[in-house]
Records
---
Amino acid sequence: MSAHDEGSIFSMRDHEDASHHHTWVKPSTIEARVRALESLLVEKSVTTHDAIDTLVSVFENDLGPMHGAKVVAKSWVDPAYRARLAADGTSAIAELGYRGLQTEHVKALFNSPTDHHIWVCTLCSCYPWTLLGIPPVWFKSPAYRAKVVSQPREVLKGFGLVLAPEVRVHVWDTSAEQRYLVVPERPAGTEGMSEDQLAKLVTRDAMIGTSKALSPEKAGL
Amino acid sequence: MSAVDARPVIPEMDGALAYPRRNGEPVFDAPWQSRAFGMVVSLHTAGAYPWNEFKTRLIDAIAGGPSSDAPAGTPDYYYHWVTAFCRLLVEKGILTEAELGDREREFLTGRRQEIY
């Protein structure tokens, strides 16, 4: 588990301890200062415990996928953008203002009725977090990392995605220098939807390649 | 859903100000870091100050050299973050140094244990 996961668990426990009168442990100076800040700011109604919680959770879990989803949605509605994304993923993504990718090359992989792309980091857990946020837990599991290379169709089946035998499956191995973004096929029945609405159909899994984009019904649109 | 709406509010930070990451992921090494992060962004989104006012103080704090509060060998990004935040709150008149110092001592001595 990564440190941020532990962080969220502890911060929750921290809060519970405070309200349940467990044994007192002397805080460090910085801990005391941050507790002082939080208690004073909440007391003065400048913020709330929930507002802080929400922002932390957004930062830890949801910050990225929205960015990747916007890239995909734009490529669905704008053929010229799609061409630029295909030619140079990093630059096309930077056009939308998503930085922090200077040292990484992002290659967009376009799914089609004949070809399905999926990527993995077999070595560690390299992941384009600015685009996709925090990686899902399974992404780092040895089972996924090992199996997706040798039996991608089986792995996809595990995700509930069954591909016709004639569809070619391409597995890409990411690294610190080379990142991937799967552009799923645009779902049927989405003509006339705005880019913002379309972006809601694009899930993190769809951009890794373990699922398709959502139908408007599934996305609640 | 509020989480969806909240996404664009987390300000981008580049270069020396970039949020700490491990394996490319944003990380907090301790609960206090996530609380400090949430407070700064929360007050900003509530309109207490433009992001730039926090940013310039964070730049100053980082430029001031390694934080003396951080144990040796520990990343001090969020120590600077807290320093910048305290300075901003005092300068904005949201808190006074005295009340912050008093409350901090209450937590340090255990006289106060509950945040709320």
---
Amino acid sequence: MNKSHNTPFLRIAKRDSIKWWHGWLIRLAGLFLALVVSAIVIYAIVKLNPVKVYAAMFEGNFGTSRRLWVTMRDLVMLLCIGLGLAPAFKMRFWNIGAEGQILVGGIATAAVMIYFGSSMPTWLLLIVCFIVSCIAGAIWGFIPAIFKARYGTNETLFTLMMNYVAIQLTSYFVAIWENPFGSNTVGIINQQTQAGWFPTMLGQKYLLNIIIVLALTVGMYVYLRYSKQGYEIAVVGESNRTARYIGINVNRVIVRTMMISGAICGMAGYIAVAGASHTISTSTAGGSGFTAIIVAWLAKFNAFMMILVAALLVFLEKGAIQIASQYNLNDFASKMIVGIILFFILGSEFFTQYRLIFRHSREVK
Amino acid sequence: MQGSKASVCMRDITKTFGSVVANDRVCLDINKGEILALLGENGSGKTTLMNILSGIYFPDAGSISVDGHEVTIRSPKDAFDLGIGMIHQHFKLVDVLTVAENIILGMPGKGKLDLKAVGEKVRAICQAYGFVLDPEKKIYDLSVSQKQTVEIVKVLYRGAEILILDEPTAVLTPQETEKLFNILRNMRKAGKTIVIITHKLHEVEEISDRVVVLHRGKFVGSLVTRDTNAAEMTNMMVGRSVSLNIKRPDPVDPKPRLMVKNLTVTDKDGITKLSDVSFTANSGEILGIAGISGCGQKELLESIAGLQVYESGSIIYIDPESGEEVPFAGKDPREILALGVMLSFVPEDRLGMGLVGNMDLTNNMMLRSFRKGKSVFTDRKTPQQLAGNVVKKLEVTTPNLTIPVRRLSGGNVQKVLVGREISSAPTVLMTAYAVRGLDINSSYTIYDLVNQQKQNGVAVIFVGEDLDVLLELCDRILVLCGGKVSGIVPGRGADKNEVGLMMTRLKGDKDNE
């Protein structure tokens, strides 16, 4: 018999619910700690003044009017994909195929722009592009959903594989649409006529992107929170058996929701091609289909919270690029700083749920 | 035999979960070689207290000493080192492994695993206490009571001197319970100390030497069993005096309401779950369904509710207004409702099927009604009012309507579920294990609600596991055995032993035994 055990040094206990301001206080403390720790790292490793580095990150995001608008453009892009993923993840359908859904939406848009650019007025082109990109994305969402509903296939693997199919498809179309010949790129589509490009509004190229995505944000918030379909999604996500018990057709909800999810991601491809880059390549999605998963989850599928999360992620990314170029750092140093900040902010979520109890002491925040 | 020296002393044990105080400065002595019953309602902290002793939880405050030495129990392994083992209500066994493999699972060992030696030792333990167990059998081939035996042997194999059993009889038939009690008596003879957690009074009276009562996380008292009686224990447990009789009003104008004919269900592995089941449920009457667990009650109710695919058979609803026969075999719950069949179903798995644990009361009330109306948006006002009404009428203890239902206690969860199901004015009400895990107070609330429905002319189908309750509450009892109907007996004047026997073998098979 062993009697020499000590009380454990550290124990973790789940919190009862906490007040909302308490939660934000914890998150703020996390942000503060992040800045302090990365300041130490910055100083220790690259011998720079941390305050200047932080200022540079700001500079990179908001330094000029052009930078500000580019930041906004990237923000709404990420937000749009996050909004597309939200219903699928709320249903606990692990859609990691946003990359592919964006690409097929982009291909559809590019195809319309290339083949009908001269035969349709721009307003009609924009609408047709919008519709076909949504349809393309919806198909990319439908395929894994129907297999999941019918045969119970694993949607994580399936949607992931669909990404590679979409990438290969993109390569194929890039080869067909190659311009100029031999460049292995599509080049800027309709550079002369700007047919199918988002129009400049109030002197701003990206204003329409922002308007579309903000409207979508409100729509998704209302859809998930107040509509009958949104309620069905929540029930299916929480418990398949409860959904069946009350007569929800689970398979139909899965297919319908994934088509919506795919359609919105396809629309993100439309915004990327017609509203931003005016070209298509295998890097059109550029990994934001995965980053957006963080956006959706961290915001707990609250569309308005997603704006904040997407803003944070875009801010960090732009800031990292800026400090890398301004101080001639290599990529890794700036990414380290971003990593530290993300670590603390995500880590603070843990402390909103749990508290620590140290040996011989009262509870600690 | 009853040594006065306490082998375990728990002093001022306090444990809180968030704002809930599960144990509030509880003191408990366990004497060597006794059978101690730990009695209390749900949420009174019995299981928490024993989880602390067996190393699952760590107390916030208080001290434990074993054989006079103060100890710190940080994990189940620490508890085993001190000779304390717990048999949990939900078995923790690996289905695809054999009995012997499960028994040695997690134990340290060197070199080659000698399953033969393990088997020998298991057999020796079985012989010593009167278990019947084959160490080479796979867990999935065992019945529930055999699985429980494995859990007990597992603890004995690790050399436990103090055994804690958490509501061990909840899953057993009367005969199996009797066997278990005999084994427990054998263990006591061999000098083992046993703690049995329960809220069934007759079991306390039958098996224990001493009983300790907890109420709302606090120690209420310790009694010598032979010096006390059921009424005294109940009063201590509930905190006030209650009547222990279940009311059984006469049936109200019974007419056939639901007819099940030749129902046969085969699961996806081809195993027959129900075979040729036929019966009629009458309005204004409670039809009890008795049977050991896994004999097809779940499949029967789910078939009627439209959740189970069945091979053959028909289910017919007789409309109380027009007298029309409405067959609804093979329809899903939504289609059944569309046919005008007012069917309510309180399933066994409350939080996994009847309710959504993570949603609040209002959202859970909405489950049944959210489709109403043409709007694409949900109506939240009506369900919110309903939630308020249910909370008020059924005395649900909840801080507010926006708390996730999984945070409510078991009895309150059940009140929310039953409240929702009867709110739609059903004509058929099915309940599966409606009082499982509920304390005396909540159980009687549920019995009253079911009786009210019966007096309103509802056809009630009541699946239960406690035979005493079925015999007191139901007008007729249908006994299932291995998916077949072994008989339908009237509730008034039925003999408990006879029903118990019908649960384990079909009437015609008597001679084979």
